[in-house]
Design brief:
alpha+beta, 16% strand, rod-shaped, 7 strands, 175 residues, two-stranded antiparallel sheet, 2 domains
Length: 175
């Protein structure tokens, strides 16, 4: 015949009712209030803790951890964008840098191409040696290539910034 397990008496952490619990039990349900309890043992005491409170703290810790992870992801995205952004900026004549502007590039390119065409027409109509009209044609070609390069750079910057903003908003909205 087996001997009955040793019973200890503890109080319900929820309603205060006395409970008899097997010595090795880790969990118990209070017969008075129905609270699910975890039995804690220290060298000098035995007590219970309501599992719902533990679950609530655990859920709160999970939410806090998720928030920290989300904030870290946003900060990492911001750092990555700033590094990428620096590679896409254009240098101005004064040494400063800024986002490439399609409008400014097009206007500047049109002015330069117009000057090149004007130069070519004037040089050719005055009977200048062939190198002078050729200079105007080359100048016009370089201006057109510059406009194309500026449009590509501006588009690349705009696309990269839009993707960054989309991903950042997605992280912000994901709570």
């Amino acid at each position: 015949m087996s001997t009955p397990p040793e019973l200890i008496t503890v109080r319900c952490n929820h309603c205060g009712a006395p409970l008899e619990v097997a010595a090795g039990a880790r969990f118990v349900t209070c017969a008075h209030c129905g609270a699910q309890l975890e039995v804690h043992r220290t060298d000098s005491a035995i007590y219970t803790e309501v599992l719902d409170q533990i679950n609530q703290r655990t859920e709160r810790m999970e939410r806090d951890l998720d928030e920290i992870k989300r904030q870290n992801a946003i900060e990492q995205l911001d750092r990555e964008w700033e590094m990428r952004r620096q590679t896409l900026l254009v240098r101005n004549k004064d040494g400063s840098s800024g986002a490439p502007s399609a409008v400014g590039g097009i206007l500047g390119g049109l002015v330069a191409a117009g000057f090149g065409i004007f130069w070519t027409v004037i040089a050719a109509s005055n009977g200048s040696p062939g190198v002078f009209p050729l200079f105007g044609v080359i100048f016009t070609g370089v201006a057109i290539v510059g406009v194309i390069f500026t449009l590509i750079k501006s588009s690349e910057y705009g696309d990269a910034e839009a993707e960054y903003r989309r991903r950042r908003q997605e992280l912000i909205n994901h709570k």
